[in-house]
Structure formats: C-alpha cells, structure tokens
Amino acid sequence: MIGALYANLKRPPRTALEWITDAIRAVAIIGVAVAVFALPPTEAAVLSMALPAVMLSRMLGLRAGLDLAVCVTVIVAAGSNVVDLYRSWTGWDLIVHAVCTGVLAAVALVVLADADVVVRTGRRRTPVIVATIAGLALSAVWEMVEWFGYRFITDSIFVTYDDTIGDMVAGGVGALIAGVLASRFRLTRRDRAIV
C-alpha cells in the first residue's frame, strides 16, 4: 500500500490540469511555511490542516479534475477561516461545508475501496450510501474540532447549536451529491498505482 501511494506521488504530471494542480499544491505548501512565521499560531495551524488533503489526493492517484477540486476546496476552506469570510459572508459557511465535505467524501470512497473496507459491487447505490455516511462522519469530526478549538484554544471560533447542525446538514448534502457523481464517474486515473 505504501509503495502504491509513493508511486502515485512521484508520478510526473502529464496534462495541463495535473501541472496546474501540482502548482497549486506547491503554493499551498509554501503558503503554510510562510504562515508559520507571518501569522498567529492558530491561523497557521488552520492553514496547515489543508496540507494532508492536498497531498493525499495526489498520493491516491485521483483524476486530475477531482484532485484539483480537493486542493482548491480545502485551501479555500482553510483560507476563509483566516480572512474571516465565515463571519462576513452570510451563507459562505454552508457552501464551504457542502463542497468541502463532498470532495472529502469522494476521497473517502477511494480510500475505503482501496483498503477493501467497501467492496466494489458495481451497484450505483453503494457509492451514494457510503459517501453520504462518510460525509456525515467527516462533518461530525469537523464540528468536534471547531468545538474543541472554541472550548480550549480561542473563543473567537463561532460555535452554536444551529450553526453546528446546519453545517452537518450542508456537509451531508454535499456528500450525497458526491456519492451520486461517484456512482456515474470514475474517481481515479486509469494509470494509477493501486493502493
């Protein structure tokens, strides 16, 4: 499994979209390194939470479009927190929760299938159900992290019951949509190393 992840990671980009995505990934890495020195520790930590996702999407051998969507979405989600868009733009929080949870649910589908946790049945409903469940679980974890940050790190994090439930519903809807798309389209490159 580790060998396949490494093989996908070291595979050179072949299309313009793969080059663009790798450039965005490099900017994210450099941006976090700069943030460590230029921003308060909590904001640098929030930005750094995007790095595992941008690297994992490359290591899994996702299709170029999905890889790009993962990278841009998690960077926007983290960056929106740093520049306080969640408070200043009404509804932005729900949009980001829906889109980010959706792309992460698609990643979860690949991880679960590669780990043989979910058997590839060929039935269209399997990815819909699994993605929705994974998305709701990811939403719950996301909200727990927000609560932990509010409770133990800074009270500037906006946490209310309505916000939490709304975010989880938005994440569930995004994951459901991702599952429907995954039931119709391949999520990984054809030439990827099998994890």
Features:
single chain, 195 residues, mainly alpha, 9 helices
Write the SSE topology.
Elements: H1 2-10, H2 16-38, H3 41-48, H4 51-59, H5 64-82, H6 85-88, H7 92-114, H8 125-152, H9 161-182
Shape from CA axes?
A: globular
Rounded to an integer in angstroms, the radius of gyration calculated over CA atoms is: 17 Å
Mean pLDDT: 92
- Number of distinct helices: 9
The secondary-structure class comes to: mainly alpha
Q: What fraction strand?
A: under 5%
Counting structural domains, the number is: 1
Could you explain how this protein is built, in words?
This protein is mainly alpha-helical and 195 residues long. It has one domain (2-182). 74% of the residues lie in helices and 0% in strands. 34% of the residues are buried.
Describe the structure concisely.
With 195 residues, the protein is mainly α. Helices cover 74% and strands 0% of the residues.
